[in-house]
Amino acid sequence: MPCTTILAGKKATADGSTLVARNEDYGHAFNPKRFIVVTPDKQPKDYQSVTSKCKVDLPDNPMRYTAVPELESTIKKVGWWGEAGINEANVAMSATETSTTNSRVLGIDPMNKKGIGEEDFVTIVLPYIRSAREGVKLLGKYLEKYGTYESNGVAFSDKDEVWYMETIGGRHWAAIKVPDDSYIVAPNWFSITNFDFNSDDTMASDDLEKMIQDNHMDIDHSGNPYNLRHIFGSHDDSDYEYNIPRQWYIQKLFNPSDVHEPDDPDLPFAKKPEHLLTIEDLKYALSSHYQHTKYDPYGLEGTDADRHAFRPIGLQRNQELSILQIRNDVPAKIAGVQWIAFGPNTFNGIAPYYTNVLDTPETYRDTKEHFNIQNMYWLTHAITTIADEHPFRYSASIEAMKQSTLAAGRHVLLETDQEVQELAGEELQRKLQQANDKTAKAAYDTAMKCFGECVETGSLKIRLNY
Predict the structure, then answer these.
(1) Which Gene Ontology molecular-function terms are recorded (predicted)?
(2) Which of 226, 270, 224, 230 lies closest to 247, judged by CA?
(3) CB under 8 Å to 179, separation ≥6 — which residues?
């Protein structure tokens, strides 16, 4: 279930917000998702993982938070998989970026099949933290106590800081603060490079440096700071076609004058973008498929082998994209915004939703297990199924839908930010929910218009025409 993550510090964005973005991908085309609010009364008290049967002792004081979990009908089979959300303290969490490791690590610290994993992380951490640093510390505590059965990257943010955390073996971890003026891209392999154990901007399990030294793991002979990617990551042949090119392409978008090769295993972990980043930049990057290069599967450049050389970022296994935005130019009561897109990102629009609410719009909340055109998730898949066959034929409708969805959402935010200045409590939440419903209606209507245009255009080209 590979994903792609982009994180941006507050001085790297155009409006001074912190941004945490991740495509949630799956092993095949369909894994229906829903966008919900989990209120304290709905937060599980006696938590047990479905995958590993691990029981986790949770605190008694959960906060309200948003999440993008499995459907109610499948939770008992596979677990919650909350994936991404913002809590009432305006702390965001995205989990996880499935990562890589190597045999040296696993020989020292094997995976724990009875531990915690992606299924659990958001549910057991996000309702209980009041800063990004607290998130790292709490998840680190759980990893050391319960262990994990997989390698993962996890992101936390608040209005000031963005942190990226990577699990190491069964019970170890490391985390680093994203520089305020920089962004990072994590493409399914161990990403952290220059890690200084003496810095205030890093955290790790207590014995991690000792583990490196005792087991001769510092293959660069560098000492502190260490290149953790070289120590704990993989360099498999598959990385060069599956993981590295995604990081290369997004860095190419944000730093076009800095030339690298798409199979460079030493791409920088953090970079200062050549222009301040926007929601539009992150959405384009996470919907991309190597446009304007010979590696674009829809392109006309290069050979057929070139066009299928690298795994795209936007692909049919995208299930949802959440861009978690904590804004610094508005009051805290409206600072948290979760931008949501369902289905394959190459063919969808993204819309913003206030997170200081008690419920979410129906078309995002009540996703059905099987096809239902009333659900944004399934509507996106319908558009994708038509447009993929002839992407150039439908490109005008797709691009208009993307732009209109973003513009309508931004307009609702702008109007609502002004209208709720004097509101508080339940009155404020009702107003924000009304704004979210307005945004959802605009997004759905725009997607339906695009769907209709695709049907009308395609109907003129069907082969049963005499």
Answers:
(1) cysteine-type exopeptidase activity; dipeptidase activity
(2) 270
(3) 9, 270, 272
Q: What would the DSSP string read from start to end of 48-80?
A: E-TTT--EEE--S-PPPEEE----HHHHHHH--
- For residue 30, what are its two tokens? 């369909």
DSSP string computed for 114-131 = TSB-HHHHHHHHGGG-SS
CA atoms within 13 A on the CB side of 142: 27
- Residue numbers annotated as active site: 3
Q: What distance in Å separates the CA atoms of residue 36 and residue 362, rounded to the nearest whole number?
A: 9
d(CA 120, CA 54): 10
Q: What is the spatial order of strands in the sheet that 270-271 belongs to? A: 270-271, 183-186, 4-8, 18-25, 318-326, 336-342, 351-354
Strands (E), 307-358: 318-326, 336-342, 351-354
**Cα–Cα dist 308/297, whole Å:** 6
Q: In angstroms, rounded to a whole number, what is the distance separating the alpha carbons of residues 250 and 254?
A: 6
* Whether the predicted model's global pTM rises above the 0.85 cut: yes
With 0-12 CB in 10 A as exposed, 13-18 as middle and 19+ as buried, what is 405?
Answer: buried
DSSP state of 403: H
Which residue ranges of the chain lie beneath pLDDT 50?
none
Question: Which H helix or E strand runs over 405?
Answer: helix 391-419
Q: What is the pLDDT of residue 464?
A: 86
Other C-beta atoms closer than 10 Å to the C-beta of 191 total: 25
SS3 content of the chain, % helix, strand, coil (to 5): 35, 20, 45
**Count of other CB atoms within 10 angstroms of residue 82:** 27
Q: Tell me: the pLDDT tens digits for 268-319?
A: 999 999 999 999 999 999 999 999 999 999 999 999 999 999 999 999 999 9
DSSP-derived 3-state class of residue 236: coil
Name the H helices within 109-214.
Answer: 118-125, 132-146, 208-214
Three-state SS sequence of 287-320: CCCCCCCCCCCCCCCCCHHHHCCCCCCCCCCEEE
Q: Are 344 and 381 in contact (CB under 8 A)?
A: yes
Domains of the chain, each with CATH number or no CATH = 3-346 (3.60.60), 369-465 (no CATH)
Residue 116 CA: distances (Å) to CA of 133, 143, 425: 20, 7, 36
| 186 beta partners | 5
Maximum pairwise Cα distance, the chain: 76
